[in-house]
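Review box. Two proteins, two foldings.
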Amino acid sequence: VDIYMGTGGAPEGVLAAAALRCIGGQMQGRLVFRTQDERDRAARLGIEDFQKKYGLMDLASGEVMFAATGVTSGTMLRGVRRYREGAKTHSMIMRSKSGTVRYIEAEHNFTKKTSVDKVD
C-alpha cells in the first residue's frame, strides 16, 4: 500500500491505524464534525483541539494486534462461503511487535453444535 485516503468515523480510523502499525505504514487523521452535537460530544470526552492532526501513534500506540474476517469477498479477503453443513471463512491476523501477518482459512462445521461454556 503506497497511500490510503478516505473518510470515516473515529473507530474506523483507529482500526486503520492498528492495521497500518502492524505492516509498518503511516497515517495522519483529523476529526471532522458534521454537527454541533458531535462537536459537543467530543468536548465532553476531553477533546480540546478540534483541528489537531493525529499521527499513527496517537491512534494506535503500544503493542497492537489487528484481525479481520471477510464477510463479502474483496481484494484482501474472501467472503464467507456457505455449504450444506457449515461455512468457510478467510481471516487475516497481524501483530505490530513482530510484523507477522497470518492468514487463516477456517472451516466451521454447523452439525457439531459447540458452546463456549462446554469446552473439553
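Next protein.
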Amino acid sequence: MNTALWIVAGVLAFVFVGSGVMKLVLSKEKLVAQGLGGLDDVDPNAIRGIGAAEVAGAIGLIVPPLVHILPVLTPLAAVGLAAVMVGAIVTHGRRKEYPNVAVNVVLLGLALFVAWGRFGAYAF
C-alpha cells in the first residue's frame, strides 16, 4: 500500500506542478488560447493564487517525507489539493464543462486516497 500511495502522490505532484506552473507563468490570454477558456472571466490574481496552491500542494506531497521533515504535511497537502479540486468541480459544473468535471473528480479521488492513507495506517 505504501508503494501505491507513493505512486499516486507522484502522479498528483506531476499533474499539479504542470498545471500550477502554467497558471503562474502564462498570461490569462495565453491560458485561454491554449484551451483553458473557462479562465476567461477569472481575475488574473485568482488564477495565480490557484497556480500557487497547486504547486505548493504538489511540493507538499513529495518533499516532506523525502527529507524527513514534517511528513504530516503530506496528507495536509493532499487535503488542500482535494479542496482545490472541489472548487474546480463546482466551477466547471456551473459552466457545463463536463469532461473537465470528470478529470477533476478523478484527481479529487486520488488526492483523497493519499490523504486517507497518510493520515491513517500508512502515515510516515
